[in-house]
Amino acid sequence: MRWKAAFPMYAVSEQVRAGYEAWFDALLAGLRLEGFTDPVDLVRAAPLPGFFRRADVLLGQTCGYPYLTHLRGHVRLVATPAYDFPGCDGADYASAIVVRADSGIATLEDARGRIAAANDIDSNSGMNALRHAVAPLARDGRFFSAVRWSGSHRASLDLVRTGEADLAAIDCVTLGYLLQAQAHAGAVDGLSVLGYTAPSPGLPLVAGLSVPPALHRQLQAALLAPGVAVQAHMAALSIRRFDLLDDVGYARILSLETQALAAGYPHLA
User: For burial by CB atoms within 10 Å, which of 20, 33, 188, 244 has the most?
Assistant: First the structure.
């Protein structure tokens, strides 16, 4: 089997992208020492979320919301990173609700009638968590005057920063990486964090259905008890450890959706 691997979710800069690729190289080197010899192609421009429906995905990272709504049954959970950023708590993460510092928005209620930016309709951090946060404040299914779908968290930040939108919910790990990267410090200039959304399980690592059970267990073991080289790359990526979560744990993401629906707020609007 010729396997595929992809880690597109946090490729917010070349530095971070290279960090994930180096981490995977170290993980793969450990598997090689245990006798794994199959070729593996690292895919950078992976079409999401459909890429992860491929049975030949050895390892990849996806968002928890499309995992539950599109990918469950097509992939198996491997492990979930526990990041060391504000807004993270173990394998849970939250979204930072970001506004311009001079916007006059001091509370979420102040954003009524303003424009929201969101990265993607299938995003837990950019859409689902924000929908849940706004639902108790919505009237007749609306809260914002408009929602602009940006295509990425970085693009959402740009829309808020330039005044084309007033608020966005940004994955706290994405925000953490941008704050770390000197070359991208301007992405958050003039912005402030209003608060954080409810926490939910972070972005899981998944494997395709063709990955044999023994190899799946090898991957989990390599993540739960990483070698020195893997640990070094984890530290560079602000990953404290990896945890094992199951579908019951990830169902908390859909509970955010359920609560928004119960409040009469089915769509971010």
Answer: 20
